[in-house]
Specification:
336 residues; alpha/beta; Spore Coat Polysaccharide Biosynthesis Protein SpsA, Chain A; nine-stranded mixed β-sheet; 9 strands; 17% strand
Length: 336
């Protein structure tokens, strides 16, 4: 049987969150003519995630296989790579374990991918399903929490706009991923003790840089469940710090090597300017204003990004990937 579409769910300790996602997928409408599968990538969970999946497998409909795979390397980037390796669909739709897809999500995602074969990846509308209403003053931070509502018309993300969809609910064309994204990427996702993020943007940058188009499909909708603690200081400060620390990678990836020093200088000047204006605006009030504190953390960590990545060996990983690619190329030439 040829699989048209794969739904991949990376999860870490998702035993309480997975059931709602799986229930919604089990009851998808409009997908009867599509050959599709669901795969759960258990990213080194320590709870009963595997047991939950086995229970669902026992009663899962035959028309849509449900498979389970374990990925011991911690990090969303590693889980995503395992999902690509194990998927059988030519299109792969990624759902986090707190992303509840609409009843026709699979059908609308597959139809869009078939209609636009030049598209390498596309995202949709992501609505916030908040446990508690977010304070109005935190509204500017909601896009960082993968809340995306960009109108009712599809559009292409133009490379010069420097705007891309978040990884939640993203659909990628497997061919685009395999031909564009290196096996060893720099950013691997948040893990315990390290909030460095941006692995989804790095992936999309590679796909876009290779000439594939990236689009917004408003017919594809998910609800993103946001627990109350994700609106609190203890989560938001490390979270925005992680976004800033990853920015050197996502900012420089699409540039040619000779462009990077000049563009980096321009970004640095702009970040310093923003930080100064920000400090003047909130003088003496930053610690008492959560939004101001988050943006202070974002600006500072953006400035520190290249030094942090170098000090912690992230660039060494990229050098290892280049060496590996060269070795593979040399071996292939010997085979010829």
């Amino acid at each position: 049987m040829t699989i048209d579409f794969t739904v991949a769910i990376p999860t870490y300790n998702g035993e309480t969150r997975l059931p709602e996602v799986l229930n919604q997928l089990r009851n998808q409408v409009g997908a009867d003519s599509i050959e599709w599968e669901v795969i759960v990538i258990d990213n080194n969970s320590t709870d009963q995630t595997a047991k939950v999946v086995r229970k669902y497998q026992a009663e899962w409909p035959d028309r849509c296989p449900l498979r389970y795979y374990f990925e011991p390397e911690q990090g969303a980037g590693f889980a995503r790579k395992r999902a690509v390796d194990k998927s059988q669909g030519k299109l792969i739709g990624f759902l986090d374990d707190d992303n509840i897809p609409s009843a026709n999500w699979v059908a609308t995602a597959y139809t869009f991918g078939e209609k636009y074969p030049q598209v390498g990846a596309f995202g949709g509308q992501i609505h916030g399903d908040f446990e508690v209403p977010p304070p109005l003053e935190l509204s500017p931070l909601l896009p960082f929490l993968a809340i995306v509502e960009r109108g009712l018309e599809p559009f292409r993300y133009e490379p010069h706009r420097k705007l891309l969809p978040p990884g939640a609910g993203i659909v990628i064309r497997k061919k685009a991923y395999l031909s564009s994204v290196p096996r060893q990427t720099i950013l691997t996702g948040r893990i315990e003790g390290n909030t460095l993020t941006g692995e989804d943007l790095e992936m999309l940058c590679y796909i876009q840089q290779a000439g594939w188009e990236i689009w917004y499909n408003p017919e594809m909708e998910i609800d993103h469940k946001i627990p109350h603690w994700r609106l609190q200081r203890d989560y938001l400060i490390p979270f925005t710090r992680g976004i800033g620390l990853s920015r050197f990678v996502t900012r420089m990836l699409s540039l040619k090597p000779w462009q990077r020093p000049l563009v980096y200088l321009a970004y640095t000047i702009n970040d310093v300017k923003k930080l100064i204006v920000h400090i003047i605006k909130y003088r003496g009030k930053i610690k008492s204003n959560l939004l101001a504190e988050c943006y202070t953390e974002l600006f500072l960590s953006s400035l520190l990004s290249p030094f942090y990545l170098w000090r912690n060996g992230y660039f060494d990983l990229r050098e290892e990937e280049i060496k590996l690619n060269c070795a593979l190329l040399q071996n292939s030439e010997k085979c010829l």
